[in-house]
Amino acid sequence: MREFPKRVLVALGLIPVVLGCVWAGGPALVTMLALASGLAAWEFYRLAEARGARPMAGLGIALSALIPVVVHARFLGFWVPPVSVVALVVPVLLTVVLFARGVAGGPLAATGTTLTGVLYTGGMLSFVYALRYHDFVVDARGGLALVLLPVLVTWCNDSGAYVAGRTWGRAKLMPSVSPGKTWAGAYGAVAASVLATWALAAFALPPMAHVTLRPVGIVVVGVVLSLAAQVGDLAESMFKREAGVKDSSQLIPGHGGVLDRVDSLLFTLPVGYVLLGSFLGYTP
Length: 284
What we know:
The chain is mainly alpha-helical. It has helices at 4-24, 26-50, 57-75, 83-86, 89-100, 107-125, 127-132, 140-168, 183-203, 205-209, 215-243, 258-262, 265-279, and strands at 172-174, 178-182, 211-213, 280-282.
């Protein structure tokens, strides 16, 4: 409870900045995503190092922060490396590991952890940009609405899980990973996510983005986003539990680290992008 005022003050300061960057798009959004990706990658590698892994942290952080920049460059029509060239990151990384670490430096763990950190952080956070400039988006309001859908559904998912878990929670969902989570909380999270999706589809998407979600789309999007959010939260809890830490860092006062704030979003952003591309339709 002593942390609550601090959490509220930090949230009140950060939320307008995040919303402003999403609304502005372009360089402002890319700068925010690159910074968040780099910091999240740094935290991820710290968790790995706590368990004895030796990732190429500097290279991984740089690559993670670079992904949103490359996505933006491609959107602007600049030349960006094709998939065939991007794939060369793997042999380049292996070459670096070969000469910098050798057999004694845990090359398998170093390579796997480095690549996972890049894709898990910068790769997933770049879907904010993809949603902001989705094919259905015609202006800043529409872009903001599509980004907010998975974000707000994720927040409602967490709230639903908390309320249902505190009220009816008995059977534990996965005690070895997150002792506080219950099956009742999981069901409450799904219900809250579907309700939030319906509310956004009814009152936000048509006036802001000029798009609609049909009833079957509302149910599918709400349920799948809820499951993605819960798995994303459990995945980061798994990493932290293995590393023996409570928070990924203390970068955000009262909130822990960047990964602690975006763990569920790292799953719901890409999943939301795919789902919205399948179920959205223009308003008549």
